[in-house]
Design goal:
This protein has helices spanning 9-25, 42-51, 55-68, 153-165, and strands at 30-31, 76-84, 91-96, 101-103, 126-129, 169-172, 179-182, 188-191, 194-196, 200-202, 207-211, 218-223. By secondary structure, the chain is an alpha+beta fold. The strands form four sheets. A four-stranded mixed beta sheet has the order 1-4-3-2. A three-stranded antiparallel beta sheet has the order 5-12-6. The protein starts with 8 loop residues before the first helix and ends with a strand. Bound molecules: zinc ion. Zinc ion binds next to loops.
């Protein structure tokens, strides 16, 4: 095999297949540093190596290292573009030290991003529905690239805070079709009922007084 980075696509594919085989045979630990990223395995590694603009020499290095099963004196950069975190939205470089794979920087939100919203409701009447963002004209606010990218937790939280400023509690609830439950004369909770794969049957407290059709994956609360 050539080691100067000049091998063609077929050779590159063969190298990646060998890397996958070696990784499957002897899986290495992976430290995500608190980020929420794809499950890291041989396939993910092959994907990263295949996509990286520095892929060819890196593939070569990784193959040599994995074949030799050695502890490296220095850290090898596997992917400069790295893995995307669903929570903080950052792309973090991936490194390998001969013993484990790890991401370069810790996630600023290892426990998720807390979000609470306060609404002023002098009338005491709240309207609850799906996506009310078009009604508030917030889409016209100039945005940094990706700042409100709702594919990431950080973008959804920023969007929720933006909506709070214009008087709407706006929360991403997925396609969960939650219900509104009255806990007492002053308190309500919005929760999902039914069945959840991870948590089993869900029976929120309180009396069900409304349900929200979340076709657009959001829940909006405004004063009536
Ligand atoms: Zn993160």
């Amino acid at each position: 095999m050539e080691t100067n980075g000049k091998f063609g696509d077929k050779e590159g594919e063969r190298v990646i297949e060998e890397i996958k085989e070696l990784c499957n045979k002897s899986p290495k630990p992976f430290d995500a540093m608190g980020h929420q990223v794809n499950k890291f395995d041989a396939d993910e590694l092959a994907l990263l190596l295949g996509q990286d603009s520095f892929g060819r020499p890196v593939r070569d290095d990784v193959l040599t290292i994995l074949r030799a099963q050695i502890r490296l004196p220095t850290v090898v950069t596997i992917s400069h573009r790295g893995m995307s975190c669903w929570c903080c939205g950052n792309k973090i470089p991936l490194y390998y030290d001969g013993k484990k794979f790890f991401l370069g920087t810790p996630c600023p939100y290892p426990d998720g991003i807390p979000l609470s919203v306060e609404l002023n409701i002098p009338s005491g009447v709240i309207m609850v529905t799906d996506n009310l963002s078009p009604a508030f004209d917030v889409e016209r606010i100039p945005e940094k690239h990706g700042f409100y990218d709702i594919n990431y937790d950080i973008g959804r939280v920023r969007f929720s805070r933006l909506m709070e400023e214009v008087g709407c509690a706006f929360l991403c609830v997925g396609q969960s079709f939650p219900g509104v439950y009255r806990l007492d004369s002053k308190h309500f909770t919005i929760a999902r009922y039914g069945y959840d794969d991870d948590r089993g049957e869900l029976h929120p407290e309180g009396i069900l007084v409304a349900s929200i059709d979340t076709e657009l994956w959001w829940c909006s609360l405004v004063r009536s």
